[in-house]
Amino acid sequence: MSSVCEQPGLHSIEQATAALVQLLARPTQSHRLPLHRAAGQVLAGDVYARHDVPLWDNSAMDGYALNTADLPATGGRLPLAGCQAAGDAIRSLPAGHCLQIFTGAALPPGANCVVPQEDCQPDAGGVTFGSVRTGQNIRRQGEESRSGQLLLSKGTRLRAQEVGLLASQGYAEVEVTRALRIGIISSGNELRDPGSPLEPGQIFDSNGHLLASLLQGWGLEVHQYPRLRDDLTDTLQLLTRAAAEQDILISSGGVSVGEADYLKTAVGQLGRINLWRVAIQPGKPLAFGMVGSIPWIGLPGNPGASLITTLIIARPALLAAQGQAHTSAQVLPVTADFQWQKTSTRTRYLQARLQACDGRLTAQLHPQQSSAMLANCCWADGMVVIPAQHSIQQGDSVPFITYQALLSAH
User: Fold this and answer.
1) What is the rounded CA–CA span in Å between residue 381 and residue 73?
2) How many Å apart are CA 279 and CA 13, to the nearest integer?
3) Residues contacting residue 266 through CB under 8 Å, at least 6 positions apart
4) Is a pLDDT exceeding 90 seen at residue 392?
5) Which side of the chain, N or C, has fewer Cβ within a 10 Å radius?
6) Domain at 58-139: CATH architecture
7) Where are the alpha helices (DSSP H) in 91-133?
8) Residue that wins the pLDDT comparison between 22 and 72
């Protein structure tokens, strides 16, 4: 059933991302979660305000509530009629008097102004005021939201502030999309689990742990399968099992030219390969397709390349597959504190660190840009993006994507 894409050359990053978004697109399932577990989840539908916020006019300050008509323009003294605290029953303001009031307390009917306590001179039976202004220090009913107003849109990834907003409207539960189940498969005879003894020619499996950490941070449910040996029968069996248990499969290794081709061969036998080889550096061997009815993403084996292709191409598709509306990471213009003359036919992603210099952000490159490394990625704040066939001169403006933005699901 193999139907490897016939397009000659390399696929652009934009083509690959769009194709992967389409491959992963399918109706999302949803469930209700209590609000205290909703952070990081994606709203399955629009949410509307249940009531006005604030529910009533209230004080923005600790001070004194009064009616400005009871004072001359230059101020004066008013007798004190009592106190209004947050949570108290709402009391009316007697004409010609003032009420002590605290932040958040309901504005007494008849009052049209709150004067901060530091601008007042209280005495035994009253308070002396300077000049006052109608409407000052009052939070008006509904100034934040009105009952029935759209509060949050479908596809919103809930942060702490959205959770707090939902709580302010009395929501105890919220309908969110179900986390997708992702099966992670590391491929290669040379791989061993961290903590195991290494024989000559063996290395620890870093990609499996790297990918699990990334995907869990994006709200996905992760299952790591046993390491896949370079054997076609084993590969077919593991892919068949994983496809029956997961929503999406992600493997690392076994997709480059010259590698033992059991993984791509097995995917082709069980389904199809939709796309292979992308104009990105590092990460050219990226592939994806279907194992039966389950999408499969094949990442390069080099850890740096695996990280970059996941962040740049897989991330937006995986977030969209969860129903998230906004999936792009912000790109910042920064000043190059380096020269780069190695033009390439592929878009380059270079590990870089930001520094503030004379009021602007500059990017410095790590001296080693090997895709086999992760130490340079740990050193970096993010990546400078160099389009194909471009060189960079010192002082040029270059696009920069922070790891903070890419590692976040927001």
Assistant:
1) 57
2) 6
3) 232, 235, 236, 239
4) yes
5) N
6) Beta Complex (2.170)
7) none
8) 22
